[in-house]
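Audit log entry. Action: structure prediction of a protein-small molecule complex. Ligand: flavin-adenine dinucleotide. The ligand was supplied as SMILES and no pocket hint was given, so placement is left entirely to the predictor. Protonation state taken as written. Sequence taken verbatim from the request; no trimming, no tag removal. Recorded inputs:
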Amino acid sequence: MVDAARLKWSWGEVAAHGDQVPLFFYSTLFLEHPEVREMFPVSMAAQRDRLVTALGRVVSDVDNVDALVPFLQQLGRDHRKFAVVADHYPAVGAALLHTLEHFLGAHWTPELEKDWTAAYGIVAEVMSGAAEDSARQTPSWWDAEVVSHDRRAIDLAVIRVVPDQRLDYLPGQSIAVESPYRPRMWRQYSPANAPRPDGTIDFHVRLADAGQVSPALVEFTRPGDRLRLAAPMGTGLVLPDGPPRHVLMLAGGTGLAPLKALTEQIASFQDGRRVYLYWGVRHAGDLYDLPALREFAERSEWFHVVPVVAAGPGPHTGQAVGVALRQARWLDCDVFVCGPPGMVSQSVAALGHAGIPEGQIHWESGVSGLPAEEALS
Ligand SMILES: Cc1cc2nc3c(=O)[nH]c(=O)nc-3n(C[C@H](O)[C@H](O)[C@H](O)COP(=O)(O)OP(=O)(O)OC[C@H]3O[C@@H](n4cnc5c(N)ncnc54)[C@H](O)[C@@H]3O)c2cc1C
């Protein structure tokens, strides 16, 4: 039996040492097991934050199994793309115990060692079990070829890929992508189309200033290049079951991508739903997909697109949520919101304030932010 309070206290003591903790952990791991070094990116800076974040999450939910187990299962499935296998877990566990012992000094007691050994045993068992289950159904990753690379703006490309094997996903989900120009650095991108018979997938990639992966995808990637894609993730923007409601969509920047995929899915239903897409960008030059959206709206009387430019000019200026709420009440609609974290949180708050029931508001955050991926090892 793990003493949750003791575990949390000890982690608090260790985490107070900040960056020293992951630095010590990875040095220990690589010294004892040099063979695992090549599973990690050349630069370990972002990796260190992820280890601490993931461990913090495990410890804070250690007495909340309902929350912890799905988190660990997802983490286990997700680590397949790093080629993690069951044999790696004991090495990570030993490095973790060594790290805890180092930072806790005289506080590292036999009882604490027992608690941490048991807790890590559960983490390893749940993660590797989920990984094994998913290995029976899907590959660890999909190799894919870039078939086109359309540089729509200095900082934006629409990249079409075709995986060697069929990759099924739900519109609204995202897929982690690895570029050969940035090995072992996986970042999430959202398919901008519903699954097609030919298996091709479009990604809308915005170049993040001083980012690692997005510049490689926008600036260096060419048709014929090979990318790796991981299993699709996320449920926040998936179309809910239940009676079809009209749909309001609020997109910020490349948050357009999953909402475009959802629109294609709704088009295939032909169930009378109407879709109103408000697409917010900073400058008019950022409306990289507007001609295609307008052309689609002309052909589909149930679909409406309203471009909203933060700083003008144009008929609609300000924030997408503000413009949408000035035009209608949307109380009976499903609302989908996707974009940078600030845009999503402000929009969700404003929609709640306007009386739209929480269960009708669907959102996914992080599209222009730091990667959400959490790697434990
Ligand atoms: C579910 C989901 C879906 C997404 N879908 C899309 C999509 O469809 N299209 C899209 O373009 N993006 C999408 N993203 C965002 C994408 O995953 C990447 O985060 C984005 O492309 C930036 O990656 P990068 O490697 O270029 O930048 P990173 O190297 O990860 O850096 C991100 C930003 O943080 C800054 N930064 C990095 N490290 C530090 C540090 N130590 N201190 C301070 N600042 C730092 C960088 O300067 C940069 O601006 C999505 C994200 C999520 C979570």
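Audit: result stored. Residues 368-377 have pLDDT under 50 and may be disordered. Residues 273 and 307 are 21 Å apart (CA to CA).
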